[in-house]
Structures are given as structure tokens and as C-alpha cells.
Amino acid sequence: MGHQAPQGAGVGGWGSFKDIFSGIFSGAQHPQQPRGPQPGTDLEYQATVDFWTAIRGGQARIQINRQETCPTCHGQATQGGAMQCPECHGTGQVTQMGGRMKFNITCPRCNGTGRISDACPTCHGEGTVTRSESVDFRIKQGTRDGQRIRLQGKGNAGINGGPPGDLFLIVRTGPHPVFTRQGDDILLTVPVTVAEASLGAKVEVPTIDGRAQLKIPPGTQSGQKLRMRERGVESAQHSGQRGDEIVTVEVAVPHLNDERSREIMRELARLNPQDPRKALFDRL
Q: Looking at the domain assignment, is residue 257 inside a domain?
């Protein structure tokens, strides 16, 4: 009968040698060195400001969460002085057995430095802690919805003396019950009477600067747009330039509550027999 291989020899034994060599070379090639200065990461938040602040400019405030330098370890991530590694006794290497062979490998506890330090109990070795903070920032006159504001140094704190990151704010402007903003233009719908639309008139309309006169040309139709030049928003990008106010006219049809008014309207229809729907059929 042939001799059987001893238990543990063959494939299993080779696997253990592979594990030993893998540990040697991986430890030798990739020791974890102490971290040097690392810059903090940037933050991005959306900041909602009211309609008038975006137009006129002013101060605003936002609440953010950011990483700050740990007050206990001052960003060093460790507490107390370094001491001799108890695993390798300061040599940086430990002995590992592989069958009858001995191998010296990098100490896994101190990463070959021979010294260890206790992690900071406040930041748990991160060097930073999370804090909630109120940040005040300035809104420039004419700031648009979606505009990006950079606040230098207001991002996450750096590590081991690294510089902090930046805070980027994406401005979101609030709505207004009367005005709608489109770029630097102000949009507004203004109702006028049938007489004002038919005969023409000067009507008072609101603007972002107060009341102003708008000329309604004779024969103005409902839905027609009239432009009031330089009644819009002061441009934040181009100094001295200003948008317009664009007024959409809405003809208000009156409720005829007495017979005399209805008779006048019937007389008006007889004097003006135009069919406003004729053009629809002419295009068929």
C-alpha cells in the first residue's frame, strides 16, 4: 500500500504559507503612516430668502451642520503623548510562526512605528466634531433664484492643521402674491374695464418701486402684454442695468345688474356687429 500524506499537508499547507507571505508583503508595502494636514471638504446648502431681500439686497441667515476642529485634541485625533507599543515593545515588528518557520512582519497595532497614542475620547480619533451653526451672509441687490454664493472657509474643518473647506449657498427666492420675477423682469397681471380697454386709458398699476401710470392703448385685447421699461429689478451681474415690468392686460367683463345696463350693451352689440370667432373658421 502507498503512504498517505500527513494530515494538513498538500493544498491546505500551501494555503497557510500563502497567507503568511501575503501578510508579510501587504504589511511591508502598505503601512498606515500618521496622517499629515488634510484640507476640509466643501459644503453646499440651499438658502431661501424672501422676495424683497433678493430684489433689494440685505442680510440673511442659514442654519448648517459642519465639521469643526475638535476642542479637546485640537484636531490631532489623539490624547496624551505617544508611548511604547506593548505588542512589539517598540521594535515595530512582531514574529509570526508558519509551521517551523518564523517571519518578522510589521506590527499591526502601531503600523511599524513602535509608538502608539490613545484616540481622543471626544472625536474618537477623527480630529473633528459635528456642530450646528448659524451662518450670516449678504444678499446682493438683484440676486436671482439659483444664484450661487461662496463663503470661503465656512465648510468643514481641516485635519491636522489643514485649511477648512468652503460653503456654497444656492439661493432660492420666495414668491410674492402679486409680482412674478423672471430674470430681471417683473411680470404682473392687471385687470381693466371694457371701457378702458376699448377707448384707451391711463391706469395706476403697482411696481416694485410703488405706484406708476400705465397707458392702455385703445382696442387693447385681453391677454395683451404691455412693457414698462426699466421698472424691473436692478441687475446683479451688470451694474446700472435694470429689467422691465411686463403687464398682462385682463379685460374684466362687468356683471349687468339692471335693465338699463343690459339695453346699453345690446345697443353696443348692434353698433359693432363684428364676429370675434370668424377668424377661427377662416383657418379651417
A: yes
Residue 196, phi then psi, degrees to nearest 5: -65, -40
Structural domain includes residue 284: no
Q: What 8-state DSSP symbol labels residue 213?
A: E
Backbone angles phi, psi at 223, to 5 degrees: 95, -10
- The pLDDT of residue 35: 57
C-alpha span between 87 and 114 (Å, rounded)? 9
Largest CA distance in the chain: 130
- pLDDT for residue 162: 86
In which domain, by residue range, is 243 found?
Answer: 180-272
The reported pLDDT for the residue numbered 214 is 97
- The three grid cell numbers given for residue 136, joined into one nine-digit string: 450670516
User: Does 91 reside within a domain?
Assistant: yes
Same domain, 138 and 225: no
Task: Classify residue 245 as exposed, middle or buried by CB count within 10 Å of its CB (0-12, 13-18, 19+).
Answer: buried
Residues in the chain predicted with pLDDT less than 70, given as ranges, are 1-35, 75, 80-81
For residue range 118-162, what is the model confidence (pLDDT) as tens digits? 778 878 777 788 899 999 999 999 999 999 999 999 999 988 788
Rounded to an integer, what distance in angstroms lies between the CA atom of residue 87 and that of residue 93?
A: 9
